[in-house]
Design a protein that fits this description.
Blueprint (H helix, E strand, L loop, with lengths): L27 E2 L5 E5 L4 H4 L11 E8 L3 E5 L2 E5 L5 E4 L4 E6 L4 E8 H6 L4 H8 L4 E2 L9 H12 L4 H21 L15 H12 L6 H7 L4 H12 L3 H19 L4 H7 L5 H12 L3 H5 L28
Antiparallel strand pairs: 1-2, 2-8, 3-6, 3-8, 4-5, 4-7, 6-9
Helix pairs in contact: 7-8, 9-11
Amino acid sequence: MRLDRFETFVLSFCAMDMSNSCHTSGGTATPSGLTATSRIPMSQSKRMLGAGEVHQHTEVELIIYEHGPVTMLFGGRKLNIPPNRLVIFWGAMPHYALKADPKARAYLLRIPMPLVLQWNLPAWLIRQLVDFQVLVDDPTQDPCSDLDLLKHWIRLMDGSSIEAEKIVMLEAEARLRRMALDQRTSPVLAPRAAGAGRLERMVGTIARRCLGRLRIPEVARESGITRAYAMRLFRRSMGMTMLEYITRQRVSHAQRLLATTDRGVLNVMQECGFTSPTRFYAVFLRFAGSTPGDYRRPFQPVGNRRGKTDKTRARVRRDKPLPG
């Protein structure tokens, strides 16, 4: 299945359990995974006190920050986001706020990826999203500012009206089409800087090598610190163990392959660094909220869907744990 066949998709996220895919504080969530909310960014300083962890979800996210800049990590790559700039990305890529201005506030809309694909947007825009790029658009006042638009969507969604949801979807689609028409955006994620901090170097190493045989001592060595200190720093800063973060990265890559290719589930499993079908299905269900087959189903043309739920049919081998 290639990107040029996305126009045949039919939205069916309502049949999926999206309870694990939205990690917002407050806001309104519908059965389809559509979410609109505002919140204070969770910065690294708060995370070190145990206040939060890395975000990962299955929707396309449109977000804008008011009052101050925010520094984000997207899959191990650092991005400084100024206020009042519309940011768009696929949430399957692990991401979190590394540093946030004390006055900053986030306004966001999350849209199920199958619905975005159903809009038949220009191929270059879709390709950037499924390739885990982040798009940052220039400020606009035509027909209104993006900040006002996000606030308007949140107010509409607060009423839990079906008609309001339709309005939000139509206006969100129109906003993405205006962006694609003007072609003002381009990929903005910078490569890892040579002088990056220890945490960023660890996350960058994981992002580059997580699909192969990656050992925790290797991550620590590339960051110039001991294994014990690397594990302690990573858990304190990211709110999870290094192994869990590596697993999240692998699952996000599996989501991308399941959504954009026809490769078999076991082939996807192996390409994403897993060795055991049982382990793969368990962690995929935990982080994506469904089995790999059920996750893929909304992305497939109607004639290619199967009625049965996804089950492991391959021979099960004991998963080889990441040496630590």
